[in-house]
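I'll show one example:
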Amino acid sequence: MNEKSLKVLEFYKVKERLKDYANTGAAKDLIEKLSPYDNLYEVREHLQETREALKLLVTKGNPPFEGVYDVRQGIKMAGKGSTLMPGQILKIGAILRAARRIQKYITVSEDEEHFKIIEDICAGIVPLKNLEDEIFIAIESEDEISDKASSLLYNIRKSLKDKNASVRDRVNSLIRSYSDYLQDNLYTMRGDRYVLPVKAENKSSVPGLVHDQSSSGATLYIEPMGLVNLNNEIKELKLKEKAEIDRILAELSQQIYDNITVVERDADIIWELDFIFAKAKFGNELNGNIPNVSENGVVNIIEGRHPLINKKTVVPMDVYIGRNFSCLVITGPNTGGKTVTLKTIGLLHIMALSGLMIPARENSTVGFFTEVFADIGDEQSIEQNLSTFSSHMTNIVNIIENFDEKSLVLFDELGAGTDPTEGAALAVSILENLRKRGCTIVATTHYSELKVYALKNEGVENASVEFDVETLRPTYRLMIGVPGKSNAFEISKRLGLPEFIIEDARENIASDALQFEDLIQSLQEKKSKAETFAREAEILKSEAAKIKEKYEEKASKLQNIRDKAIIGAQREAKEIIRNSKEEADKILKDMRELERMGYTSSVRHKLEENRKKLKDRLEKTEEKLYDNKNDVGEELKSVKEGQEVFIPSLNQKAVVLSKPDSKGEVQVQAGIMKISVKLKELRASSGNSKSEKKKLKREAKLNLRNVSSSVDLRGMDSIEATYTVDKYLDDAYMGGLKEVTIIHGKGTGVLRNSITDMLKKHSHVKNHRLGEYGEGGTGVTIVELK
């Protein structure tokens, strides 16, 4: 896409704001290179990755990018076999740790929503846990190597500590011995060696090596001969320490070099994810949404806002073009918002085509344009000696030479800067030529001739920015289908122009012209309202379809979970009964053995009676598994394939798939499962209609829940907060949420303690913990539900 339009529409300002949400310089470089993608697949793919990142932020909090820095230079040096500095190695370790944590961060269970694009990106991550651990064990900070880095380093530093203690004891002894010859009774260091501050006149009284003197020359810093050997030993140990540190850094650098391909790939993925999540955070800050992208150039922006204007003052606008018309002519007074409207349309398209969320309502649609041309603003050039008209005409010539049917063209004050009659005629000719050649056009103008052009031609529509005559101020609202009406008489009257002058002016204009303008405006307003209602109905229909699809999917999932739970419970119950029977048979077998060892026949008779009682009790227990409290229908003697039956044990209808086999079992389709049941367990399906309707009704209520993943308690007292959390946990549990966030704030800790005490006893809570860094810290509690 041409750089001129990106500059005129201020896309670079959007990118500068986007950079604020990136953690690394590498991600900021990706943002700097960001521009609209040149094919529809890439646009939708990058919008989808932004949507997935936003969902991850909402459901799981910030990704684990803590401690991640731009270490491209360090990786480049490692790739050449250089020995890295501790800080560079530490930052590479942070990249490896973040890559490993990201894999865990995006992992979801089978029944949760997957994040296909981000999961595909993360599939290239190869964890290097051993190297990561070695780095963090060996290096404590950018300028400190840990004692744990190697046993040799530990021993050297221990020896250094002991040797320094010995030297200090020896120095203190010498200070006492030479106290009369010293400037001060203390020691100091010169070049890592312990020295004493000796008065210059007492130099001969303290034998040793002179290392330094004071600026005045009154003090000499002398290393006593008794310390020379000890200082030499310390110096040797420090040299050994440095050599060992160099060896450790070289070894870690070599390991990074050996895995350089994996390190580079992991780092590239981390920086790409940093870029993607920056897009999501920026879009969330804008209260933006992911737009639909139309391949045929249809534009339908709902409540669009300019992203660089303060959210509290910007006026949302609705813009639609591309269905019944491809050219929109906007009229209205100066400072009324026409230019802002043009810039908003252009900038929102550039953002969307670059994979960014746009500040507009959900279900907004942008067109896929390979080029956006913008002739906006006064670009008069003194150096080139071009007038305003010449400057605009130069831009228009460039647009005409380079546009195609996949272009969006934005004209501000088309034809201005020259004679009105000639300018209007030229503007109409330019618009008509571009429109016939298939491009999409939005143009602003003051010329009435263009209003007439829009009225006469199919495929062209009028629009205006609203002006409040009462306050003499623009409202900045865009009204499509309504041409801008001249308000000169009303404005002049309110500003104090005498009535007789206004009346004379009215008489100079034909009354038919005034009536015609009023009639046209009235008709256009009615048409605009009808189109607005139609668009709103279409949007509501689309939203309803999405909600229906969403809850049908939830209903299916809950039904599957219910089916699995019931089948599992039945299997568990059967297993318990089977084990009980086996245990009872074993007991009876043991009793018979005892009888053979000397019991009488009367005892045997009694044992048989007890065995029969036990067997009858177990059979009754087994029958209760399949008994329903109410009459559930007539017992079936035979069934045929395709027949609908009712299974009381599952409280569900099923379809017969096969005839009874030799064991009297029938294969049926119950929901999504194929199972085998005994013929005697089947009932006629009509007998359970009432109970089943009740159950389905109850399930529908559950499926219609839309539960937030968090609840905010700030400002509540303990009693109100406890009640709110209890009700919220019930809703979250019934809504199928696995993990929720309770926001209680930090404060004095009273509210947090009350909530913690309640969570310990709550039946839906599986586990709970305070938030970690990036989740809200001690100001939130993360609850895992059963």
